[in-house]
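Moderator note: this is an archived Q&A kept for reference. The question asked for a predicted structure of one protein chain; the sequence and the answer are reproduced below.
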Amino acid sequence: MNSSNLLARNARKYPTNEAVICHGRRVTYKELDNQVNRLCNTLMNLGVEKGDKVLIFMPNVLEFIVSYFAIQRIGAIVVPVNAKFTLTEVEYVAKHSEASAIIAHEAIFASVENISNIAIKIKTGAAKDNWLSYNELIVSGNNNEVECKLHEDDLSTILYTSGTTGTPKGVLFSYRNILAVAQMIAIEMEVKPESRMLLMMPLTHSAPLHLFLMSAVLVGATSVLTPTFTPDLFIDTIEKEKTTHFFGAPVAYLVTASHPRLQSADLSSMKWWVYGGAPLSENEVRHLQKAYKTDNLTCVYGLTEAGPSGSILFGYEHKNKAGSVGKRAPFGTELRIVNEEGQDVPVGEIGEVVLYGEGNMVGYYRDEEATKAAFLDKWVRTGDLARFDEDCYIWIVDRKKDVIISGGVNIYPKEIEDRILQFKGIFEVAVIGVPHEEWGETVKAIFASKTPVDEQELKEYLSQHLAKYKIPRLYEQVEALPRNALGKILKQQLKKQVVSK
């Protein structure tokens, strides 16, 4: 089985059921499958073949889903790219993945208009220069059924996630990996054909894409898409479309909780309020339960390299264990906490979380060394330090890597530090996460320079090379950064200093 065949099966089984709702457009499973065949046939005529890499540079729109399945139906490999990436970042992904084609959306086309070294370029809206029109290709393409003969162990998708070295890594997935975690969510969260999944978090991230879109397709449910998130749009969409499942970062819930419309909103259709990317404190849980009038907040913890998968904390468990990430791994996944020797640690002792399941990645694309380092035998290392309490609930203590999680999105300091060091006068820098009431963490850059640095100039420079969410919100210029005897910058000391101020 593969993703494309799942869609084709639903087109036969549920031809008139709504598959996708987006910006007033309503597409049935039969109509979606026809559009996928049209684009698939056109892409093949343009020269896209099995094994080719094709970038999708789009927000959450219908065209993303059509492109996703059309690429897979050929046997090509999908490379979703964060819609907030700059040209520099997209070009790196294109080069590293050896992409032969890109499909971009008109709304963010300006970011990639001048991309080089890609043979086939397609954009929604009108054609421009050497960019073909997606709309025209759909209209002109024939809808002859394309049989997809891929198997579960064939390659499906590469998701790029920056590593702490500053170099983005391509996480390579097979169909087995993706279908395993989609099945996991369908079982754990009761996804059925009548379910309506609200997808407001970016489909370029593993949880919205693999867990929630694919679980919907797995069972024939409806996916309700929005290209952005705002509290008003969130409330409006739930009320209008009677959605049943939503996954979001804690900040999405917290920002909406204070919205004046929430108390009078009709949210009665919602059965699963799922959050991930960071745990919620006990006080935040109580606040959200009251604001949303629900006891069914569900926390999912996981790692992209594991599908994603990891652990789950159900609504009823929040009463006593809010802030934990649960006491067990979900269906199809195993979880351990181990010491440096790979041995299980006793209750209360801190160790690293490792995960095993069919959702575990094939490996990092074109990076055997990093792939080897990511595994402990068959177990994927998370880099997260955690402990079991006396009730076997899991509590994340810290991260081995210096990853910053802001609004549920991973931000990797080394990539930002490398850019800042290229700015005039700056000779050393440390980028750290500091506590933020709504976002969990926000990004701060502490740097030393030979001359005074204009903060606005530095921000403008970074905006040319980094996505907006990676650009530090806080800056501090110092004479020198603290280092240990080996010359390594003492980030933990800097964090303590920031918190104590």
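Archived answer notes: The mean pLDDT is 93.
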